[in-house]
Amino acid sequence: MAEMTQYERIMTATHKKRADKLPFFHWWRHSQIGWTERECRNRGMGMS
User: Fold this and answer.
1) Dihedral angle, C-alpha 7, 11, 28, 39, nearest 10 °
2) Phi–psi pair at 26, nearest 5 degrees
3) pLDDT at residue 13 is higher than 60
4) Is a pLDDT exceeding 80 seen at residue 8?
5) What pLDDT band is residue 31 in, cutting at 50, 70 and 90?
6) Does pTM top 0.90 for this prediction?
7) Half-sphere exposure of residue 25, counting CA atoms within 13 Å on the CB side?
8) Can you give the pLDDT at residue 32?
9) Hey, is 6 helix, strand or coil?
10) Rounded to an integer, what distance in angstroms lies between the CA atom of residue 2 and that of residue 31?
11) CB under 8 Å to 18, separation ≥6 — which residues?
12) Helices (H), strands (E): how many in the chain?
């Protein structure tokens, strides 16, 4: 099975189905700028 994208994980969880990893994302007003944002993205955290 191929690894899911960040978007697929979030959408799967909102439809009460099982994702390959626990989805996690920041809301725009809580997101960081610069190094912290890049590090979150590199670790697979969805940013919206």
Assistant:
1) -40
2) -100, 145
3) yes
4) yes
5) low
6) no
7) 15
8) 60
9) helix
10) 28
11) 12
12) 2, 2
